Amino acid sequence: MSGSLHDVSGAPVAGATIAVRGPKSYYALSDAKGNFTLSGIAPGVYEIIVTKPGYQTATDTDYTVVAGQSQNVVVTMHAATFSSLRTIATVRAVGRGTFNPAFTR
């Protein structure tokens, strides 16, 4: 399987993680030109997940790999928007002591 990633303007998206999950999982990173290659993927149905900070996650949940056929995937990445961001952790500070305004700027 090989493919390319670009944004909506057509610019390549480098450094994105491509995960192909199914009977077995495979991973790759896109290069400076937005290209990636994964070898040895067994025939079957897979989920393709493409992630990169600053972009919305792209997924294809029903991608079929057929023996003897070359697979080419083209993905258009969309910039993350405020509504597409998720909270992944929250922090609550609990402590004792007094507030020192000299430490704030």
Task: Walk me through what this model shows.
This protein has 105 residues and is mostly beta strands. It has a single domain (2-100), classed as Carboxypeptidase-like, regulatory domain (Immunoglobulin-like). A four-stranded antiparallel beta sheet has the order 3-2-5-6, with no helix packed on it. Strands 4-1-7 form a three-stranded mixed beta sheet, with no helix packed on it. The chain has strands at 2-7, 17-21, 26-29, 35-37, 44-51, 58-65, 72-77. β2 and β3 form a beta hairpin. The protein has no helices and seven strands. The protein is globular, with a radius of gyration of 20 Å.
Content of β-strand: 35-45%
Overall helicity: under 10%
CATH class: Mainly Beta
Mean pLDDT, all residues? 84
Q: Which outline best applies?
A: globular
Radius of gyration, CA atoms, in whole angstroms: 20 Å
Features:
0% helix, Immunoglobulin-like, 105 residues, globular, mainly beta, 38% strand
